[in-house]
Amino acid sequence: MSTRDATTETPADRGDVMLMTTVFVVFLMLGAWALVSAGQQWGARRDAQASAAAAARAGAQVQSSEVRGGSVALDPAAAQTRAQAVLGASGYAGAVSVNGLTVTVVVSRSIDYAFAAPGFDSSVTAAATATASRGVQGDEGG
């Protein structure tokens, strides 16, 4: 039976902690890199979606001139103008389409990553739809 102390290291053990620490730090740095890139992508997607939704709502917002005889008739040119104005004010450009009383807005924006990570898209696209209706609930003035 050996009386060797457990704290005594052999020449083969030297440097093991340094290697494990280096590998651990590299994994932490890669994780932080991916987390920062994912956060930037999520923020860009959220902003694009909010701008598309605001533009769609603005396009579907009926003006008094578009209410005829108690019914709503959405002017496509005016709806596109309103939606494009909101997109321009928010710094986005996109496509606006009007189909009957429905306004659809699609925006796309590139992402400028602080640290570009492989596997992350370089742009995001968001779409929103709004339908014009009369009144707050859509059923006033029957």
Describe this entry's structure for a reader.
With 142 residues, this protein is an alpha+beta fold. It has one domain (11-131). The protein is 42% helix and 20% strand. Strands 3-4-5 form a 3-stranded antiparallel β-sheet, covered by helices on one side. It has a two-stranded antiparallel sheet with strand order 1-2. A hairpin with a 2-residue loop joins strand 1 and strand 2. It is rod-shaped and about 90 Å long. The relative contact order is 0.17.
Provide the fold topology.
Layout: H1 16-60, E1 67-68, E2 71-72, H2 76-90, E3 94-99, E4 102-110, E5 123-131
Antiparallel strand pairs: 1-2, 3-4, 4-5
User: Percent range for helical residues?
Assistant: 40-55%
Strand order of the largest sheet: 3-4-5
Order of helices and strands: HEEHEEE
Our estimate of the beta-strand percent is: 15-25%
Q: What is the residue-mean pLDDT, rounded to a whole number?
A: 82
Query: Structural class of the helix and strand makeup?
Result: alpha+beta
Q: If helices are DSSP runs of H or I spanning 4 or more residues, what is the number of helices?
A: 2
| Cα-to-Cα separation, first versus last residue | 98 Å
Give Rg in angstroms.
Answer: 28 Å
Number of domains: 1
Please mark out the parts with pLDDT under 50 across 5 or more consecutive residues, or reply none: none
Oligomer: single chain
Number of strands: 5
